[in-house]
Amino acid sequence: MNYRTPFARGSRPFxxxxxxxxxxxxxxxxxxxxxxxxxxxxxxxVQKAGQGDFKPLKLxxxxxxxxxxxxGPQSSLVIIYQGKEIRLGPKTDVVLENLKKGPxxxxxxxxxxxxxxxxxxxxxxxxxxxxxxxxxxxxGTKFSVSHxxxxxxxxxxxxxxxxxxxxxxxxxxxxxxxxxxFNEEGKVETNDFxxxxxxxxxxxxxxxxxxxxxxxxxxxxxxxxxxxxxxxxPDPTDY
Length: 239
Known about the structure:
This protein is mainly beta. It has two helices and 20 strands.
């Protein structure tokens, strides 16, 4: 005869719950090491590990080290990784490297286009953006790097960013409201935009700067153009 105690009969559901909880915890722990696409507007594609064909990128796609991402016209996306937010603008081409825990910074290799980075100050792992002409490194701030055929621009929204020309070993600290332009010849031009920006508003006087340097238009992905002298509307609380 096969005898089963009440405890034995009830242990199967209990054991099942234990297994499900263990699987949930394992999945949660693994998710901490994953970069996840949390927002996608328009079209984008990904080349896994930088090899093979590009495939359409979808919402909640997991991004791994050495994946190459390209966004289409009028497209953008957001990637979240361990307290870091990485935004890509239209017609942007990047490779993400070192998506793993450790002291070495996450590297965003920007071939062209626009990326905006938000690194929480509590993060021990920073982010370094490398473009064909500039390098920007941080551990806790908000900043952007854009690149086109005229060179690269690094703009600081909050905090301080260490920037340098890609061929230089010496970095310069760039503070909030400032931007550095790096051309292919190694020249650096610093711009002071503090009077044009007020939180997430930017004065209409910024338009001539966009007309002169079209890649600066991507700043309007976060900042709303307006007349600062007359606009008393509430400012958004976040980018």
